[in-house]
Amino acid sequence: MILPGASLGLSLSQQHLILFDGDCGFCRRALGWLKARDEGSLFSAVPYQEAPSPPMTPALFSACKLAVHLVQPDGTILKGGRAVLHMLEHTGMGRPARVLAQPPFLWFVELGYRVVARNRPFFGRFLFRPAPRKP
Question: How many domains does the chain have?
Fold first, then answer.
């Protein structure tokens, strides 16, 4: 399941591939938020459970259970907080993301990412909630 608009504008070889937990509502809503800000269609996303090989490997599959992964066009893989910062940098939050990517801020980003990732159902109640339905 590639998210809508995933291949608009750029070929797949130029896009960054986001590997996320397709069973996680929080993850799907967060990606919806990101895709709404991805004006250049720089990112495509696929649940890690459905990702093709390559880039999926058994080791990457196991790692994706714990954190979001971002496969860059050159094959570099970022995970967790670093992946999120990279996504934010390219969707309109460049300067804050670049500052947060520097130690010691990066250490706190990674810690915060781990806390949120381990408690997605709890944080899903407050972050990236679906828009209220109109009567």
Answer: 1
